[in-house]
Amino acid sequence: MKINKICVLGAGTMGSQIAALLSSLGFKTYLLDIVPKEGKDRNKIVKDAIQRLKKQFPPPLYLPEFADDIEIGNFEDNLEIVKEVDWIIEAVVENLEIKKNLFKKVENFYKDGTIVTTNTSGLPLREISSDFKKEMKRNFFGTHFFNPPRFMKLLEIIPGPETDKNILEEFKKFAERKLGKGIVIAKDTPNFIANRIGVFGIMYIFKLMEEMDLKPEEIDALTGKAMGRPKTATFRTLDLVGLDVLYHVAKTVYERATNDEMREIFKPPEFLEKMIKEGLLGDKTQKGFYKKEKVNGETKIYTFDIKNWTYREQSKASFPSLERAMQEDNELERIKFLINGKDKGAEFAYRSLSEILLYCANRIPEISDDVLNIDNAMKWGFGWKYGPFEIWDYLGVKEFTKRMESDGKKVPDWVKEIDSFYKKDKTKRHFYFYPERNYREEIKSKYEVYISDLKEEKKTLKENNEATLYDMGEDVLLLEFHTKANAIGPGIVEMVFESIDFLENSNYAGMVIGNQGEHFSAGANLYLILMAIQEEEWDEIDLMVRKFQEMNMRIKYSNKPIVTAPFGRVLGGGCEIVLHSPYVQASSELYMGLVEIAVGLLPAGGGTKEMLLRHNEIIPEGVNVDFYPYLRRILEIIGMAKVSSSAFEAKKYLFLRDRDGITINQDHLLYDAKRKVIELNEIGFQRNRKKKIKVEGRDGYFYLEMLIYNLLEAKQITEHEALIARKISEILTVKDVPKGTEVSEETLLDLERENFLFLCGTQKTKERIEHMLLKGKPLRN
């Protein structure tokens, strides 16, 4: 399916953010809305929306300037633009008549074959499209994006009454590959799948909160990581989304799902209606279930008490079952321990989980014919680690059903007929498909490579406790890190050396460095560094850093292609691995940076060196330029611990090069990196060649020293931060040589190591490392 030009109708929160995503992905994007009732500027509504996009957080755009590529207009003067586009997305207010009237106008300019979709979150598609002409009905369906569209993986696709199935299937492939979405096919029922299930879970929690006299912070402790859900859990998530949004979705189900056996649960409770009337909507009004206040320079969080109708200081949740569950690394084991406890927290966990599992089972086949779509909707739309039916399988379908029935709960007959919702056959998974009362194979995209499948297929070639080398097929190797937070320890360093030796002495074409953890790598193992500092094992630290430097140089100068596939957080030492990689295929969601200053250190695995080299490389050969602004920029990037907000921004910081690839769908990242290895091998891979670099010497150092002095005088940095900045400056300039002196990479690496060791010996760096390990946040001392 070829889609190049897209028009979004409606510049509200969702419409403008959908346009932001599309423009960021390189599509020619148009954004239209109504003409304002007052003022001369007929496009003011859209212009204001574009300006908001540039300031919003989290950023809906990969780069703020991508907003300038969106062409703007209004429904009265510019609607004929829909004749030129390949896809029209309607995202106006949730009012049936307004939508239908707008589509009547669109039909005047509609070109046969153009995809037409609605982003409605609850209105029936059959009613929206009832008056469409035949060709438009054939190309019409729902595309329900989740907010914020850039970050939420879920895209629910809802077929209309006469949607062409082939068009739907082609669009699904397009949305997965080009928009990076996880697709769930939903039925035309109130609030579709994710919101129907997710909002039921929230509304039932409201019921339990009042019945069991539980506090919001207690419930959040129980419904976050302990249940395999996002750390924002229940009430923090509601503040982020907005209580008014929850109210609207719940009320839609209550009014439209008249045959739902749990319909009364969706009726908004009095306290919710009252909170909304008083403007306690969450983050958008700075107060909801929680609010933040500055007290003596510190941010304090207060909780809203619905009984006393006031804010109070937060209390800490204390349940033995929760404490026991959180000792488990496996999320499914956590859930099992939590619901089998004997305290109030365990009772709440069991009651809330059992009700949502039953509700999901009772919604088949109403909202979906199978368990897979419901599980994926909850994982991609609500951030659950595992879907409800996957959890039920782990708890044991027969066992958990027996427990619920013993508590008087009614379990659907179809559930009692089966032993599991999923069946596994080697690397193939089958899911229960209700209409056939049987199992169907889960069809994976050809773009998806799963490390778990490589393990099942016994493709392991080498392994230790921190890393594993696999054969990923087509003569390509895959090196996986698998430590906690993928922190870099001696096992990873050892395995990189072994893997490159194996690669270079084999018939393999090349290697991918990647993994499928929560993040690519949080950097070096700080515990090991702190222990060595406390024992004053300076030679051990020197050796540790030297080996890491040598490892990165082996990656950089491998004689076969190595492609690194970073995603999520790529910090400190993780960033240095990527900087040394001959080629990179990065996820678009890339939060990459050299953040060592936060723990009182500097990049010593070659990161400082590589930033200097990259800024030199962007200057055309033979062109003389003043390099001081580049020195200042590098010092700012490292000294301010700048982290990219996307792969596109990583290119601006030169963490990535122009030639490095960007993958929109993270599930396709390892596949794309593998294709890059094969492509490089086929065209004739040329290994990197070592070059010397001209440095600014003592003149450049004094320039940077002046900048540091001014920042210190203005109290923008601390004394210790000034010291770290000076040590970084010594490396960037090689301060004891004349300007223009040529030095090798090894000279810069020696300086990195020397200055890293110096900082390890300072008390304030030790304090910073200890604080980060204990508190999980930086100390500015």
Brief characterization of the structure:
The protein has 781 residues and is of the alpha/beta class. It contains 31 helices and 25 strands.
Task: Provide a descriptive summary of the structure in words.
By secondary structure, the chain is of the alpha/beta class. The chain has 31 helices and 25 strands. An eight-stranded mixed sheet has the order 3-2-1-4-5-6-7-8.
Mean pLDDT over all positions: 96
- Radius of gyration equals 28 Å
Count helical runs: 31
The poorly predicted ranges are none
Gross morphology is: globular
Described by its quaternary structure, the protein is single chain
Total strands: the figure is 25
The proportion of residues in beta strands is 5-15%
Strand order of the largest sheet: 3-2-1-4-5-6-7-8
Please describe the biggest sheet, giving its number of strands, its sense, and whether it closes into a barrel: 8 strands, mixed
Q: What is the terminal separation in angstroms?
A: 56 Å
**Level of helix content?**
40-55%
Structural class: alpha/beta
